[in-house]
Amino acid sequence: MELTVAEENYLKAIYHLSDGGKKSVSTNDIAAEINTKPASVSDMLRKLGEKEVIEYRKYYGLQITETGKRYALQTIRKHRLWEVFLVEKLNFAWDEVHEVAEQLEHIQSPLLIQRLDAYLNFPKFDPHGDPIPDEFGDVRSRPRVQLNEMDVDQTGQIVAVKDSSAAFLRYLDKVGAYIGARIKVLDKVEFDGSLEILVDQKKTLFMSKDVASNILVLQS
Amino acid sequence: MELTVAEENYLKAIYHLSDGGKKSVSTNDIAAEINTKPASVSDMLRKLGEKEVIEYRKYYGLQITETGKRYALQTIRKHRLWEVFLVEKLNFAWDEVHEVAEQLEHIQSPLLIQRLDAYLNFPKFDPHGDPIPDEFGDVRSRPRVQLNEMDVDQTGQIVAVKDSSAAFLRYLDKVGAYIGARIKVLDKVEFDGSLEILVDQKKTLFMSKDVASNILVLQS
DNA sequence: TTTAATATTTAGATTAGGCTAAAAATAAAT
DNA sequence: ATTTATTTTTAGCCTAATCTAAATATTAAA
Ligand SMILES: [Mn+2]
Ligand SMILES: [Mn+2]
Ligand SMILES: [Mn+2]
Ligand SMILES: [Mn+2]
Prior knowledge:
Two copies of one chain form a homodimer.
Chain A: H1 5-17, H2 27-34, H3 38-50, E1 54-56, E2 62-64, H4 66-88, H5 98-104, H6 110-119, E3 145-146, E4 155-161, H7 166-175, E5 182-188, E6 195-199, E7 203-207, H8 209-212, E8 215-219
Antiparallel strand pairs in A: 1-2, 3-8, 4-5, 4-8, 5-6, 6-7
The complex binds manganese (II) ion (4 copies).
One manganese (II) ion (MN) binds near residues 102, 105 and 106 of chain B.
Chain A binds a DNA duplex (30 and 30 nucleotides) through α3.
């Protein structure tokens, strides 16, 4: 069976919002995520239900099926591989890739993806630190914690970001908080949850709780 | 103004069939080229006329406008750059690229194309020997002649193919007639126009007039 | 110069994806 | 336990791109 571009986008949104099928997702959430109206979502859910990529009970929400997960993971795989390509080969900044990857992920050609994967040396993570599912949809995920939840004196390495918006990524660039950076929590302000961080053993950095909550760390 | 994927495909077909705006094109020809019905073509011509990328007079054919040419050349540029990428970087065979390039040519991102072009070292020709328009739509075309029109003892270099079908390209691979090969016409059979060719000063090759007419040569 | 053949366009449907406004179901508050 | 608010779905409409069948224009033949 083949999915349309719109169906692929919906399925990907559902997969993400449901955290891989764990949480339940609302019609309104989907509408917000992909910038459509709830009425349009209802209609699409009916169609996705008929195609059996979700299990849909009117008014009671939906459950992504195993088939649906496979499709979603396939699209996510393509999206992230293209992002790696854009950054590694075409020198895109990490905040410039998302829009384009959003289009490239819909190109249909198994050979293309297989070759692209090999060309990039089978990367395991995209430029934002998110894991790239393998061709069978398996994801090797690392245990990671939000920076705002770490305690003073704990150390680790930035491995991913939760928010991939250009604004946030450009901010991180500016302050030097790149993926791979080793960090240590120097201080935490009780009052507002803001943090003082040591980056790469040399630079100290202050950040709000809000910023910190969008930085994911592999503790060490 | 932005064109839809279908509009881009129509415009490209019109550009090709009209030989860059020189020849006149029929509704039926377009339908055949892009595998649709004439009725669908009529409707699309009306729309393309409204968008002023063609000048359309019902029953009397059409003329591609300067604006239309710019759009068509932009799409052709993208198509050919992607073909180079697929062959040079992802090791696609030259008969495997067309389908995928047909999709990739519709990705919207000026930055992407600019970077891709640079990454490929500003190639001037695609894997089938067709020239790649520059970002302004300028095409540097070489004078080339169909192999079947050459005379005995004349020499040259294969620079392009007219037919890019997988079947034809695989045949050329098999007999060793690649782009760049130096050739010499050893003999021509008066009766059916078939030819005997010397390839790279070592291999002789017999081919029908039909095959030869799809091979383009830069004479020397 | 009529008539026949061919090419092209129009009419009317269909499918996909979206929208607004109204209806209906569920959830939250009194 | 009603009433109110929120969420979700349905109804009806729209645009893009396709199709088949019918109508019309152009071109070729008799
Ligand atoms: Mn992304
Ligand atoms: Mn997308
Ligand atoms: Mn091609
Ligand atoms: Mn195309």
